[in-house]
Every structure is written in structure tokens, then in C-alpha cells.
Write a structure and sequence with these properties.
The chain is built from eight helices and six strands. It is of the alpha/beta class and 190 residues long. It has one domain: Pyruvate-ferredoxin oxidoreductase, PFOR, domain III (Pyruvate-ferredoxin Oxidoreductase, domain 3). A six-stranded mixed beta sheet has the order 2-3-1-4-5-6, with helices on both faces. The chain starts with a strand and ends with a helix.
Length: 190
């Protein structure tokens, strides 16, 4: 098997690290060689956060270079645009339709780019937009956007949903397991 490369991108506080931990646990349970690299950046201040996850028979580096990502999972539209150069031809972007204004937009120094996803599609990217925030709130918490997006990704990786549920049960704090199982199911079935 060739190596599959996934980037999880978002803004600090959105749960990208939990998402990568869950993904890594599922892939390891499937006996893949898995490498994960977390780049926190300004995550504590709401800045951009990227996590690389690579898996296959043998993986030598966790880093996903330009043109190598099979999937970009984006918790926010502008973050998808920020990392589009990493997407390989034929790769997929799964993006939450939520807009989170970066600091230059908040201060009025810049404006949020109009039609971000249309631009990405015009560049040739296969973009699957979903309202993960609404689904997360339906599950019980807006903080479950990360697990909703993992549910959508799971449809493409060929690993049965039950194995993801088992990983949620061992990865998430017990008080939040049911909420996250519901969020996963909503993302998977949407």
C-alpha cells in the first residue's frame, strides 16, 4: 500500500489535536504504520493549527509537503485556502462551512475573502463543504465539529464505523463519549 497523507487544519481551540489522536488510534488499530506531527503555532491565541497524519505499510516522515495531501480536513474555510498548495491532484478537501475571522479581519485591517470555496474549486480542488457546526450542536456541543469532520473522513478510508466508535470510547473523556459518538454518526451519515 502506498502512503496516504492527511492534513487536519483549523484554528486554535477547535479540537484538531483530539481529531488527530482519534485518527491515529483508528489507523494504528488497523495495523498501519502511522506518523503524526502536530504544529501548534499560535494555537493558544486562536491562530492557525495544522496536524499531519500519514499512514501506510511503512511511513518514514509525518510531514506532508506541497502536492502530497490526499485529504485536507479543514475546520474553517480560510484554513482550507491557506493549505491548498499541499493538496495533491485528485485529493479531497472536507471543509466546515464555518467562518472564523482572523485577527486582521477582526481589527479591520483586512476583509474576509469572498467565495473562498468557489476559488478553491476553480483551482481544481474537489471540495466537500458541510455545516459541521450545526451537526455538532445537534449532537450536543459546538466543540464536536472535529468529530463530525472525522465522521465524514471515515467514509473515505474504508475502516468500518464501529472501529471509529471503539476508538472514540478509548480516546475521549468518559463524560463526552456519547456526545462524540453522536457527532461522529451525524458526520458519517450526512
Amino acid at each position: 500500500m502506498s502512503t496516504t497523507s492527511i492534513m487536519i487544519v483549523g484554528v486554535g481551540g477547535q479540537g484538531s489535536l483530539l481529531a488527530s489522536k482519534l485518527l491515529g488510534r483508528v489507523l494504528t488499530a488497523e495495523n498501519y504504520d502511522v506518523k503524526v506531527s502536530e504544529v501548534h503555532g499560535m494555537s493558544q491565541r486562536g491562530g492557525s493549527v495544522v496536524t499531519y497524519v500519514r499512514f501506510g505499510d511503512k511511513v518514514y516522515s509525518p510531514i506532508v509537503d506541497a502536492g502530497e495531501a490526499d485529504f485536507i480536513i479543514s475546520f474553517e474555510k480560510l484554513e482550507a485556502a491557506r493549505y491548498i498548495s499541499n493538496l495533491k491532484i485528485g485529493g479531497k478537501i472536507i471543509v466546515n462551512s464555518q467562518q472564523i475571522d482572523p485577527m486582521p479581519v477582526i481589527t479591520g485591517a483586512a476583509s474576509y475573502p469572498a467565495e473562498v470555496l468557489t476559488t478553491l474549486r476553480e483551482m481544481g480542488a474537489e471540495v466537500q463543504e458541510m455545516d459541521a457546526l450545526t451537526l455538532a450542536m445537534e449532537a450536543g456541543s459546538p466543540k464536536a465539529v472535529n468529530i463530525v469532520l472525522m465522521g465524514r473522513l471515515a467514509r473515505y478510508l474504508g475502516i468500518p464505523a464501529e472501529k471509529w466508535i471503539a476508538a472514540i470510547e478509548t480516546t475521549v473523556a468518559p463524560a463526552f463519549v456519547e456526545l462524540n459518538k453522536k457527532a461522529f454518526a451525524l458526520g458519517y451519515n450526512d
